[in-house]
Amino acid sequence: MTDATSAAKDGGTNAAKKAAKTTANSTDKPTDKPTDKPTDKPGAKAAAKTAAKPSAKNAPKPAGKDPAKSAAAEGGTGAGTARLEDGLRVLVGYSPDERGDDALALGSLAARTAGSPLVVANVHPPSWPSRGPGSVDAEWLAYLREQSAAALAQAADRLAEMKHPKRGVEYRTLAHRGSGRGLLEVARESGANLVVVGSAPRGRRDRFAIGSTADQLLHGSPIPVMLAPRGYAEDAPKKFERLSVAYFRRRDVQAPLDAVATLAAALGLPVRLITLVLRPSGLPARFRGADDVVQRQFDQAEKDLEHARGLLAERGVRDVETEAVQGAGITKALGGVEMRPGEVLATMSSHEGPLRKVFLGESSGKIVRASGVPVLVLPRAHAR
Questions:
Q1: Region (Disordered): which ranges (predicted)?
Q2: Distances in whole angstroms, Cα of residue 304 to Cα of each of 112, 295, 323
């Protein structure tokens, strides 16, 4: 495109001018708007009718807008970022596989516990601009819509098996190039303030592996992100038992504690604050006074935990326990912490990340990978 355009600009041959014009007309511009509309070429209308009536007979009807029409452009006229203080509204990113079932089991439990609405969304790839005379693009789009409708039908069946009430459940589809960014668009449109996703397929059992969807959410979501370990749906608890928080005192800790207090109240859970005091390993562990340094850090951690307990008490959370744990590294220290079957572990975003966004740092990333229970990642500064 650059060579042809330069030739046209410099008054080159007619062939160069024609090449530049052709290239400019056929460029796939990297816009965020999903082209979820069939072309006007012959055969497109028939394919569009096929997309409007997917073969999944039990496909649930989306509440509110039609899912095809709700595939709006990113940053479009959405409902904006909903606040936790206005009531919990759970969004589950669903795919018709194990990770989708894990996310659905966790999201359903959260919604049932809080008595809140549940939004189930499936994000499929968008169509690509087609300049040819055929209707291949429209047929491909029809196929994607049919697969998305079938996925939501499967989600409805799974929710029925969990005895999740049909009332208050909304189903949505969206065409987007990024599944994580697409879920954030659905969250803006539906007013969701908690998004739940499952582990990547390569993950270990009872652990969470970060895939492309989770990676997009964990590096830019304005709302808390809840992660379901692999295999969670197979033995999901009947209820949540406690909200544990991996706590490290810092200047911007007020907003995460606000979110913890709101979520604990919404889910009716006691809170446990945990600080991991890391012992040096290898050669530094042999230095003189190393044990004294660790002990001073441990004593300071207990003081910080008491301070945080007081901050939560000011926010109306009275049932708070604290625990400081030593270990050689985050994985070993967290492995020494007792976790209940219905535990949820919350962690704060990196203090180097953007304000009002989830941003997984080095420590929080290790916590996510080492945890054997669902992890809730809080934005650095939650919108009040």
A1: 1-80
A2: 34, 14, 11
pLDDT above 70 (res 132)? no
Q: Which residue has the tokens 């230095």?
A: 287
Domains annotated for the chain, with CATH where assigned, are 44-235 (3.40.50.620), 242-378 (3.40.50.620)
36: amino acid identity, one letter: D
Residue 377 has pLDDT above 90, yes or no: yes
Tokens of 319: 């049932």
Distance from C-alpha of 103 to C-alpha of 109, rounded to nearest angstrom: 10
For every residue of 36-102, DSSP letters joined together read -S--SSTTHHHHHHHHHS-S-TTPPPPSSS-TTTT-PPTTSS---PPPGGG---EEEE--SSHHHHH
| 255 pLDDT above the threshold of 50 | yes
Name the residue with tokens 């169509």: 127
Pull the structure tokens for residue 358.
Answer: 């989830």
Residue 145 pLDDT level (bands cut at 50, 70, 90): very high
C-alpha of 253 from chain center: 22
Residue 213 Cα to chain centre, angstroms: 7
For residue 5, the SS3 value is helix
Q: What percent of the chain has pLDDT over 90?
A: 63
Contact 252, 352 (CB under 8 A): no
Cα distances from 47 to residues 42, 122, 153, 232, 365, in angstroms, run: 10, 21, 21, 38, 44
Q: Between 290-314 and 254-267, two packed helices, what is the crossing angle to 10 degrees?
A: 60
Token representation of residue 19? 């090449």
Residue type, 280: P
